[in-house]
Amino acid sequence: MFMIVGLGNPGKKYEGTRHNTGYMALDALASRAQIRVETVKFHGLIGTGFLEGEKVVLVKPTTYMNLSGDCVRPAADYYQIEPENIVVLCDDVWLPAGQLRIRKKGSAGGHNGLKSIIGRLGTQEFPRIRIGVGGAAEHVEMVSHVLGHFAAEERRRMADAAEEAARAVEEILRNGIDSAMNLYNRKPEAEGPQN
């Protein structure tokens, strides 16, 4: 069984913000899998079903970003899912908007949601799909940047990135994380032709 976690902040105020990119990707995945993520449990919204022949639990923590682990740990315990089968979808300010980076494990890299999950699981050994949201402008504080909304021209790119992240999850379930990393850890097409 796999658990797919989309990170974000609950409530209308945060809809469409950079920090809610994980929610956007999980929504795209839920739509593709026709799984409703609406059961209130473990300080989050939960949906269960099948994807690529695997039983999956889709999770949107509603604890606010800094306490995401308070949802992920009890859900993982309840469903008896090992960390290596927990795939976390989150935003990344160090990547250009729309670019994906898939990792098998690693540090929080300054992301408070990942930091909370690492703290509660007691390990960094879980896969994550980081979705680039671009860095803050010189005069903009990081908190304002991640809690800010995408510019109009970025919205379509980010909707495409959410779909791409959903396809990356499907690839992980179908052919393993190495295959997904080979397919999706690449520079955006705009940066030159791919060989």
List the helices and strands and how they pair.
Elements: E1 2-6, H1 21-33, E2 39-41, E3 44-51, E4 54-61, H2 69-79, E5 86-92, E6 100-103, H3 112-121, E7 128-132, H4 142-146, H5 152-175, H6 177-184
Parallel strand pairs: 1-4, 1-5, 5-7
Antiparallel strand pairs: 2-3, 3-4, 6-7
> What is the CATH architecture term?
3-Layer(aba) Sandwich
Give the name of the CATH superfamily. Peptidyl-tRNA hydrolase
Tell me the helix content: 25-40%
Sequence stretches where pLDDT stays below 50 over 5 or more residues: 190-195
Arrangement of strands in the largest sheet: 2-3-4-1-5-7-6
Number of helices: 6
Strand content: 15-25%
Instruction: Provide the residue-averaged pLDDT.
Output: 92
Helix and strand sequence: EHEEEHEEHEHHH
Sketch the major β-sheet. 7 strands, mixed
| Estimated radius of gyration | 15 Å
Structural class: alpha/beta
Count of domain modules: 1
Q: What's the shape?
A: globular
What name is given to the CATH topology?
Rossmann fold
